[in-house]
Design goal:
Growth Hormone, Chain: A; mainly alpha; single chain
Length: 281
């Protein structure tokens, strides 16, 4: 106990940063999952929409998550300031989770009785529902892209900050690599012959690829409940004692008081605009 009061806990610091890094992994996962499902998704919509579903429309469908990325990036500053860094990441995890489930089975919005696990034919309504869910996941990506490194930077000591924030960049690439491997396993496990695999991909394979994101998204949201809010946000919210507790666990009591004093001195009061990318610094 005395050693923790004096020097802080490096294991505690690495643990909370590891949780935040999952947001970077989901960033990479969500943006890359479409690659394995793209061709089967096109066959699925063409089967129901025929000539209406052109290559231009298909391009919009598969890239629609980028619309959400723009929205998420634009509102990330406001969300981080109003809700806090941790709570904003919890909200992003909800967006990731709902996007995964909705992309897996967009039909349930249009069925009486909410028969969730009953796939239907491709329709225009289903296509727009799919786009909606992909945009929702994109909002999660946009928020995570800004707030994950912000969270890590605000809990990290100055001499470790650059190294720990860089782990988030690694996690983005690792998330992309992970989903390529998972897509391969899903596709390989559908059938024994290329013809049967292709048919199964159009029927259920692309759906399984999207829903696979629900598992890391749920884990991210649950683990975030176990990590603290950042000291800077706690000071902004007027909870100085809690901020000192978090800083002490990370840096030790003496250094924590010095950092807390620095945070107070550099705090600048200002109002956030609705579409501000930055945050209070």
């Amino acid at each position: 106990m005395s050693n923790y009061k004096e020097n802080g806990s490096r294991a505690y610091l690495y643990g909370i940063c590891a949780v935040a890094v999952i947001g970077g992994l989901l960033f990479g996962y969500d943006t890359a999952v479409i690659s394995g499902a793209e061709q089967a998704l096109q066959f699925f919509f063409v089967s129901g929409l025929g000539d209406y579903y052109t290559t231009s429309i298909h391009g919009f469908v598969v890239s629609s998550a980028l619309i959400g990325c723009i929205i998420g990036g634009l509102i990330s500053g406001v969300m981080a300031t109003k809700l806090g860094r941790r709570n904003s990441l919890i909200l992003a995890s909800v967006f990731f989770f709902l996007s995964a489930l909705g992309s897996f089975m967009p039909e349930f919005l249009f069925r009486p009785g909410f028969e969730f696990f009953q796939p239907g034919e491709a329709t225009k309504g289903l296509m727009w529902a799919f786009i909606l869910y992909r945009v929702l996941g994109g909002v999660g990506v946009g928020m995570a892209s800004a707030i994950c490194p912000m969270y890590i930077a605000e809990v990290s000591p100055a001499h470790l900050r650059g190294r720990l924030v860089s782990f988030n960049q690694f996690a983005i690439i690792f998330g992309q690599l992970t989903v390529y491997f998972i897509n391969f396993l899903i596709r390989s496990g559908l059938a024994d012959t290329p013809e049967l695999i292709q048919a199964a991909m159009v029927d259920i394979g692309w759906r399984r690829m999207f829903v696979s994101e629900a598992f890391p998204a749920a884990a991210f949201g649950l683990l975030l409940l176990l990590v603290p809010k950042t000291p800077r946000y706690l000071v902004m919210a007027g909870n100085t004692n809690k901020a000192l507790d978090v800083l002490t666990r990370i840096n030790g009591e003496k250094r924590a008081r010095e950092i807390l004093s620095e945070i107070k001195e550099t705090m600048i009061e200002k109002r956030e605009k609705l579409f501000s990318y930055g945050v209070l610094v």
